[in-house]
Design brief:
By secondary structure, this protein is mainly alpha-helical. The chain contains 7 helices and no strands.
Length: 162
């Protein structure tokens, strides 16, 4: 089993990271579920290395589909994101309203755009680092960032502080 994990975990994790739209924790959960299913079927696994690899990727794809279906029946959450970086307004009430508006606008973005914005502006990673983690070219990260920021400006309106 260790050989199986060592040989395939990194590639599977990158694949699942793309399937999870850059959500690192979700990809890790899906990888664990994939390996757990392999462990449960250890006696039935294909002996040939390439056949085993295909089997693992099929299981990983099915796990990702299951996770996507489960996510679609629940509201989207922004978990683990610290939005306290938003400067405080003149009053506590203003700050609460601004934070709620920002979170609402983030929810309106596509998952790809939201992932890029959170990576670049909340987690404060470079474009190259975000591209590597998400599994897309740097130009795609820049493009998604541009369109996400433009959409945020549309959603929040001209009166929102930057």
């Amino acid at each position: 089993m260790r050989t199986l994990v060592r040989a395939n975990a990194d590639t599977l994790h990158r694949y699942l990271l793309r399937m999870a739209n850059g959500r690192w924790e979700a990809a890790e959960d899906m990888l664990q579920e994939t390996m757990l299913r392999a462990w449960h079927r250890i006696d039935d696994l294909p002996a040939e290395e390439e056949a085993l690899r295909r089997w693992l990727f099929t299981v990983a794809r099915n796990v990702a589909i299951d996770a996507s279906r489960a996510q679609s029946v629940r509201p989207t959450e922004i978990v683990g994101v610290d939005v306290t970086w938003i400067p405080a307004a003149g009053s506590v009430a203003d700050a609460v309203v601004e934070r709620q508006a920002l979170l609402g606008a983030l929810q309106e973005l596509s998952p790809d755009q939201r992932t890029v914005l959170l990576s670049l502006y909340v987690r404060d990673v470079s474009v190259a680092e975000a591209a590597d983690v998400i599994g897309v070219p740097e130009g795609t990260v820049r493009s998604r960032s541009f369109y996400a920021l433009r959409r945020m400006r549309e959603l929040l309106g001209p009166g929102f502080r930057r």
